[in-house]
Amino acid sequence: PKTHRVMTLADHISHIITQDFARNQ
Amino acid sequence: SCPVAPASRSSQEVWESFSQCFTPAVKEVVEFAKSIPGFQTLSQHDQVMLLKSGTFQVLMVRFCSLFDPKERTVTFLNGQTYSLASLRALGMSSLLDAMFDFSEKLGSLGLEPDEMALFMAVVLVSADRSGIVEVGAVELLQENLIKALRSLITSRRPDDSTLFPKLLLRLPDLRTLNNQHSDKLLAFRID
Q1: Residue pLDDT tens, chain B, 191 long
Q2: Which among B62, B78, B55 has a CA at the least distance from the CA of B182?
Q3: Whole-angstrom distance, CA of residue B124 vs CA of residue B178
Q4: What CA–CA distance (Å, rounded) separates A7 from B189?
Q5: Are B104 and B68 in contact (CB under 8 A)?
Q6: What is the Cα–Cα distance from B73 to B173, expressed in whole angstroms?
Q7: Taking Cα atoms as reference points, which of B36, B79, B76, B75 lies closest to residue B54?
Q8: Cα B54 from Cα B173, distance rounded (Å)
Q9: Strands (E), B18-147
Q10: Do B187 and A14 touch (CB under 8 A)?
Q11: How far apart are the CA of A17 and the nearest CA of chain B, in angstroms?
C-alpha cells in the first residue's frame, strides 16, 4: 500500500537532493 | 508539465501530483548546479547545502516563464492554461500573488536565455550561507559569477546602466519568496 509522508516543500527538496548526491557517490 | 486541478480529483490527489512533478524539477536544478563552472570544486557538503537553500529560489525563476502577469494565467508545459482564480482554489493564493508580481518584474527586464541561466547560477550561489563550511570559496564563486553576469549584460546593452542593478534587486525578492513559502507549502512523499 502507498504510505504518505506529509512534509514541507523545503524538506521534500532536501530529501531529493540528499538522495541524488548519495546515489552519485 | 503536470496539469493541476481536473475537477474530479481530490485536493490530496492534486497535491500528490504536484509533489511528484516537483521531483524531476528539483533534479534538473541539481544537474544545472553541477554544470556551473566552479560549483563542483566546492566541497560536497557545501554543494548540498547551497542546493538545499537555493533550489526553491531557482525553481521560482524557472517557473516565471509559465506565468502571464497580464492575463493572470499559468500555462503548464503540457499546454494547459489555468486562471489565477482556479489555482486559488488550491489554497496557494499568497504564493501565486507573489509569483505573479515577481515574474512581472523579472519579465520586464527582458533577459536573454543565457542571461537568465547565468542569473540562476548567481541565485544558487547567493543562497543562505548558514550551513556552509567554506564560506570563502562560495563567496569567490559568487563574485566570479556576478562579474560574468555583469559583463554579459553590459556588453549587450552598453547604454543601459540600470538593468544590472535592477536584476540584482530580484535576489532579495527571491529570498523573501523562499522564506515565506518553501517551509509552508506541504508536499506528499509516497514511499
Answers
A1: 455 555 566 666 666 666 677 788 999 999 999 999 999 999 999 999 999 999 999 999 998 888 888 898 988 777 778 888 887 776 777 788 888 899 999 999 999 999 999 999 999 999 999 899 999 999 999 999 999 999 999 999 999 999 999 999 999 999 998 988 877 666 555 55
A2: B55
A3: 12
A4: 8
A5: no
A6: 21
A7: B36
A8: 13
A9: 67-68, 73-75, 81-83
A10: no
A11: 7
Chain B hits for A22, Cβ within 8 Å: none
- B184 vs A8: CB contact, 8 Å cut-off? yes
Q: Do A6 and B52 touch (CB under 8 A)?
A: no
- DSSP code for B21: H
The four Cα atoms B108, B126, B177, B64 give a dihedral, to 10 degrees, of 40
A1-18 burial: b if 16+ Cβ within 10 Å, else e: eeeeeebebbbbbbbbbe
Specify the residue for cell string 493564493.
B93
